[in-house]
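Researcher: Please translate sequence to structure tokens.
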Amino acid sequence: MAHESIPPLRVRALSIGYGTQVVQHDLSFDVNARSIFAIMGASGCGKSTLLHSLMGLLRPSAGAVSFQGNDYWSADIAKRAEIGRRFGVLFQTSALWSALTASENVALPLQMFTKLDAKSIDALVQMKLALVGLDTGWTSLPADLSGGMAKRVGIARALSLDPDILFLDEPSAGLDPVSSKRLDDLILELRDGFGVTVVMVSHELPSLLSICDDGVFLDASTHTMIAQGAPKQLQANCTDTTVSAFMNRTSAKTVTESSATHASP
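Model: Translation complete:
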């Protein structure tokens, strides 16, 4: 009898918050291998807070986060560090070290967590930057990079240790539509070409609809997830007024009134 395949990321009965403040509770979902999984919802609902808990920056108040069958938060410090090295992270602001060049930023994880010599690290850095479409600007400081280039350097750094899961916090934030589309294409290439599983927070509807094949929708008022599925499916079929309003960029009141009108004889 075949065993059920274990997803790279499994969340069960997760509750997160700060002190006595509950941000989200009772979250349960799986992230399938080689998928692009979206964490969706209105501003302030706790999307980034959830991402921080998934990537090991915020201990949940209840529940479990498992990576390839290993419960992250019940593991000891050494095991958590081992699991965490399988993550790649792009923060919303790119979070590049301002005093380091683009190549030095990408090299940093390799210097910290491998025993590679300087020549090997330099070769890997150039490869990772080329992978994200940057064959120039290696010696530029973050302040001299455009927003799109800084995001790409951030992704190159996130890819430096060949992660299994890539966590992206608002990757398109602050980018113009052309740069945002290029970044979406890059994320698809990383998934399709290298088999990386991607978990991303975003409120950018074009990105959600064009690249994400699954996701959860967090609600700010009930503090829990109220829908799960591919963004395109949620846009077309979800009957929850909050989700429909978000995915179709209308007000919840308009959606409710429209539904009532169509239901009238």
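Researcher: Any highlights?
Model: The chain has a mean pLDDT of 88.
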